[in-house]
Amino acid sequence: MKVVVLGCGVIGVTTAYYLAKQGHQVVVVDRQPGPALETSFANAGQISTGYSSPWAAPGIPLKAIKWMLQSHSPLVIHPQRDSLFLHWLWQMLANCTSKRYAINKARMVRLATYSKQCLVSLRENLALNYEGRELGTLQLFRTAKQLHAIDKDIKVLEQYQVPYERLDVAGCINVEPALSDQQHKIVGGLRLPHDETGDCYLFSQLLMEQAKKLGATFLFNKKILGINATTTEVKNLVLEDGIIEGDCYVVALGAYSPALLTWLGIKLPVYPVKGYSLTVPIKNSEMAPCSTVMDETYKVAMTRFDQRLRVGGTAELAGFDLSLQETRRKTLAYVVSDLFPNAGNVTGSEFWTGLRPMTPDGTPVVGPTPLTNLYLNTGHGTLGWTMCCGSAKLLADQIAGNTPEIDPEGLAISRYSE
User: Fold this and answer.
1) Chain segment 37-72, per-residue pLDDT in tens
2) Rounded to a whole number, what is the largest CA-CA distance in the chain?
3) CA–CA separation, 178 and 176 (whole Å)
4) CB contact at 8 A, 227 and 39
5) Buried b (16+ CB within 10 A) or exposed e, 406-415
6) Which helix or strand (DSSP H or E) is residue 368 part of?
7) Helix (H) and strand (E) counts in the chain
8) pLDDT digits (tens, 9 = 90+) for 236-263
9) The pTM is what?
10) Pairing between strand 365-368 and 374-378?
């Protein structure tokens, strides 16, 4: 079967690999000159199974108002008048209930746990040096209120048998010694010892080469102009320099997926949530974190690569604007300098922004559509790196007609019409 994959971020690359592994003829199309040059390029670097949680949660609307009043706010909303934004925001607010949070969290943890298993299997079979580490994730709390609020998340972790450690200050210092001089700023933490880290961009490049060895073709610098279809199936993909025909099509265009799908009358509630990162050269390894440290107060993650520190965070609702905002850089620089002041050269860091494709319920959209040969793999929000392998393997099995290794319930776009 010839499968055309639209998009070559980490989601598109992993989808191509698993499809090629099953023997399909795979063609990947992307407007960029190479893989993972947009949202996947400089993300936070964490592979966090246990922290797979929807942003839509009880109390979030009130918290959002408080956050926006902070000097280093983790959330900025620029009011938009377009119908996609307003509908998406309304749906997100509707998911801020205890019942919906439990359902969405369970779906996300199910997929993220499976994705971790798939990544481990990949690593056992392929030599992929993406500066990965298997040292867990530490979520830091600056107040007792934050520390006491994690009970509901712990219940879900226990439900899905995700190992965790509730740590006091001494425990936090034990796993991240570089925090020792700043321990007076924290009250404790929650550690997920099985979480991992790694450079998503490097991973995507390496896995693309593996997919090529299996026969996959990657077409770069190709702008997609449209898609032709009947009421039941896709006929071809229209590019600037011609058309591509396939037996099956997978849309993995991140935040840009809804625009293409409107051609087909498919309404996909995915909206771009702008995130930022700093990539900081490490000047003192002993003063840098060993793995990922997440600051709960500012919603900023600091992830250790070999000789670099990736500082990622903040959420900005600003449509498709990709301008770099100095206030966001200052927030990231403040947090990393506050907790790890001697780790790296913050003034010499690289500042980046990308658009996370977010669904209103937090769960990605993976699976079939009303058109018989069209599938979706998008809407992963901040968790594309965490969920990429599991999403791709699940979708490849569905396309091949194989029984998926996990229950796909609640992952396809059909959940929005229930």
Assistant:
1) 999 999 999 999 878 888 888 877 677 667 666 667
2) 64
3) 6
4) no
5) bebebbbbeb
6) strand 365-368
7) 11, 20
8) 999 999 999 999 999 999 999 999 999 8
9) 0.95
10) antiparallel
